[in-house]
Design goal:
Shape of chain B: elongated
Largest sheet of chain A: none
Radius of gyration of chain A: 41 Å
Strand content of chain A: under 5%
Helix content of chain B: 25-40%
Low-confidence stretches of chain A: none
Low-confidence stretches of chain B: 1-7, 75-88, 568-582
Radius of gyration of chain B: 42 Å
Helix content of chain A: over 70%
Mean pLDDT of chain A: 82
Structural class of chain B: alpha+beta
Structural class of chain A: mainly alpha
Largest interface: A-B, 39 and 43 residues
Distance between the termini of chain B: 117 Å
Number of helices of chain B: 18
Largest sheet of chain B: 5 strands, mixed
Number of strands of chain B: 18
Strand content of chain B: 15-25%
Number of helices of chain A: 3
Oligomer: heterodimer
Mean pLDDT of chain B: 85
Order of helices and strands of chain A: HHH
Chain lengths: 119, 582
């Protein structure tokens, strides 16, 4: 390869490198700035969230809610123990026995039907 | 190959055959050699010079390239512009309740300061500022800012955005703002005695804030407490109403999860608003009665006394004690406080009717040695390790004579904190395991370890008897339908100048619910409640007990306690009818 070509090739490589380095440098600066802006925004949003959380807690002060509930929910009151019950206690014991008997009868009936059909 | 250079031979020579010797005559050669030498010398020097120059140039280019390639700080946008800093400011972690409600947080605030060197007219500046802040005096401001040697003087810390806006509009030279932070308690006085507060520099000075100062400063995650804000509020407003209604000096309430010692609510009245604390704030309001107040609790101790006697096998549940006449111990006489039944009483009856004589008999049978050991076992000899710095140390008697043994059985002569009462009672309720009370929510990283103080059998007997106290005895008004409350009342006379005063009472009620499988222990006490109009007495049965009933009715649904239907009550009531026959 002629000397000239060599020098030319090296020159091209070098200028490419230089250009690349410059490009990267300014890209880094740009990204760093973006990062700074984003971090600033994050910080601001975090502070705002904190203020809102405090406000939320302030507005949800159970004392305040109780006073508001007394004022606006006059027809509602906290549940009393007797208002809470189990599904079983909907039927009294006699009802339960009847129900069980009925179920048994029905089962027998179905069973006999089944036998009849199968015969 | 790019890097190999081929030199062409004999470029200017005549034609030679391959391998033919090239001859030169000697003179010619000598001449040539001399000539060549000078030329070579010269060119060598030139090449050297040129390469040196190139070396210098390329080195400087390389150095420059190196510098240029790495972004230097000077070229970057200043990150500190606009009051923004990359370095995170020292922030204090939030404190939240067990459901995540914020109890304490840091909010950005602005401090107003002055650089006296830039102030033109001190008097006008002071006057204008005083007009904006009614709480500041023009003379005080003038005094503060007229020192020309200083460059930084606080005028007011933590001003509101509205105030800041007003000051900006005043356009005063030398008056500036500093970004700052302030600790804020959104729920005000609700958790004042638990969370505590910080000083103006955000350093904890009481409560959790002081005890957990380092954790709050160095950890980023919020500190989660065991307190449930809904339960706390129920305790707070019911107790506040009671203090007002009975014109009491103060009071306290604390509710504990008996399975792990977590405190779900802790109220001490009077309380204070940590957002608005001033030097004039009453010291009394800053005093945490629940963790640091030590009191003689009276009859509440019959519960512990009976448990101790059963646990040490001094008595059996079927034993009968003669409570018909007072016990005489040297010069002293142990008598019943109210309405003596003047007959023999069974062990459950001693609790149900709160018999001093019966309890003293049990304690005297037990003796000093066993009683002292059991008191130590129950934790009445030392302070409880809870996460607030305000901790009271119990006052144990110096001597254990018969009279001390007897009076301690019904709660005189030994002073402990309300927290001691609820902690030990919780152990009796839960089957006998004593757990240290804690204000922090348990995480699953470690197992909670308890210490056995009574056997499951003693615990079960005690629970049945305590249920009977509420069902039949002094605790009737706390009998909330469906939640099977059990407990023991106490109405202790207060010691004033070495004398017990009969109308100055500390009334209390320790309760557990639901008694068939206790989940929560609640302790309520009132300091010097007055009798209501028309009532002659001010004992616990008339104040602390109904207050407990109200609290349980309010908190049990919040705590997901399943109500027990009337029919299901039979189990425990049958047991009580067994005891009734004694």
């Amino acid at each position: 390869m002629p000397k000239f070509a060599m020098i030319f090739a090296w020159g091209v490589v070098l200028s490419c490198l230089v250009a690349g380095v410059f490009f990267i440098k300014y890209e880094v600066i740009r990204l760093e700035n973006n990062l700074a802006v984003i971090e600033k925004k994050i910080d601001r949003t975090a502070t705002e969230t904190q203020v809102l959380r405090a406000e939320w807690s302030f507005l949800n002060n159970p004392n305040r809610l109780r006073i508001l509930a007394d004022k606006y929910l006059k027809h509602l009151s906290p549940p009393k123990a007797f208002q809470i019950t189990t599904a079983n206690s909907f039927f009294d014991k006699k009802d339960n026995e009847n129900l069980e008997n009925n179920i048994e009868k029905n089962e027998l009936k179905t069973l006999s039907n089944f036998k009849e059909i199968s015969q | 190959m790019i890097f190999s250079f081929k030199r062409k031979k004999n470029v200017d020579a005549d034609f030679y055959y391959p391998g033919q010797e090239i001859r030169l005559n000697t003179i010619e050669r000598a001449h040539l050699e001399e000539h060549a030498k000078t030329i070579l010398e010269a060119s060598k020097n030139r090449v050297l010079l040129a390469s040196a120059m190139f070396a210098v140039i390329f080195t400087s280019i390389a150095v420059r390239l190196f510098c240029v390639a790495f972004p230097s700080d000077t070229l970057l946008v200043k990150k500190n512009q606009g009051g923004y800093s990359f370095q995170k400011e020292i922030k204090r972690a939030d404190i939240i309740d067990r459901n995540g409600v914020v109890l304490a947080t840091n909010l950005p605030f602005v401090n107003l300061y002055c650089n006296p060197k830039n102030v033109f007219d001190f008097e006008t500046t002071a006057k204008k500022l005083a007009a904006t802040f009614p709480d500041l005096n023009a003379d005080t401001i003038l005094n503060r800012i007229s020192d020309k040697d200083k460059t930084f003087v606080y005028i007011k810390r933590n001003i509101t955005p509205e105030e800041q806006y007003k000051v900006i509009h005043l356009g005063l030279p030398g008056v500036l703002f500093e970004q700052g932070e302030k600790r804020v308690y959104p729920l005000g006085s609700l958790t004042s005695h638990v969370v505590g507060m910080t000083n103006i520099d955000s350093i904890g000075i009481s409560g959790i804030e002081k005890n957990m100062d380092e954790v709050l400063l160095y950890e980023d995650v919020p500190l989660q407490l065991s307190i449930d804000i809904r339960v706390q509020e129920a305790l707070n407003y019911i107790l506040k109403d009671a203090v007002k209604k009975f014109k009491a000096l103060g009071g306290g309430a604390v509710i504990l999860d008996v399975s792990n010692g977590e405190v779900l609510g802790l109220v001490s009245l009077p309380d204070f608003d940590p957002n608005a604390i001033t030097p004039e704030t009453n010291y009394n309001a800053l005093f945490n009665r629940v963790t640091s107040g030590v009191y003689e609790f009276g009859s509440i101790f019959k519960l512990f006394n009976t448990a101790m006697a059963l646990e040490t096998k001094t008595i059996k549940i079927t034993d009968i004690f003669d409570a018909s006449k007072p016990i005489r111990i040297s010069r002293h006489s142990i008598e019943e406080d109210y309405n003596s039944l003047k007959r023999k009483l069974s062990v459950p009856e001693i609790l149900i009717y709160s018999s001093n004589v019966g309890s003293a008999s049990m304690a005297l049978m037990m003796g000093a040695e066993k009683q002292k050991q059991m008191m130590i076992n129950f934790g009445f000899s030392e302070s409880l390790p809870i996460e607030v710095p305000e901790i009271g140390a119990p006052l144990m008697p110096k001597m254990w004579k018969d009279i001390n043994i007897a009076t301690m059985s019904f709660g005189y002569g030994l002073s402990i904190t309300p927290l001691h009462v609820v902690t030990s009672a919780a152990a009796i309720f839960n089957g006998g395991m004593l757990y240290s009370p804690t204000l922090l929510k348990h995480n699953n990283y470690y197992e909670i370890t308890g210490r056995r103080i009574v056997s499951p059998e003693t615990s079960s007997l005690m629970n049945k008897m305590l249920r009977m106290v509420v069902d039949k005895g002094t605790g009737k008004t706390a009998n909330v339908q469906g939640y099977m409350v059990g407990g023991k009342t106490g109405s202790a006379q207060k010691l004033v100048n070495g004398k017990y005063i009969s109308h100055k009472l500390l009334t209390s009620f320790i309760s557990g619910f639901p008694m068939n499988n206790p989940k929560y222990a609640l302790f309520v006490f009132l300091d010097e409640p007055q009798p209501l109009e028309g009532a002659r007495e001010n004992t616990a049965a008339l104040n602390a007990v109904p207050v407990t009933g109200e609290i349980i009715e309010a908190v049990a649904p919040l705590l997901n306690v399943e109500p027990i239907q009337e029919e299901q009550n039979d189990g425990i009531l049958n047991v009580s009818s067994e005891y009734r026959s004694f």
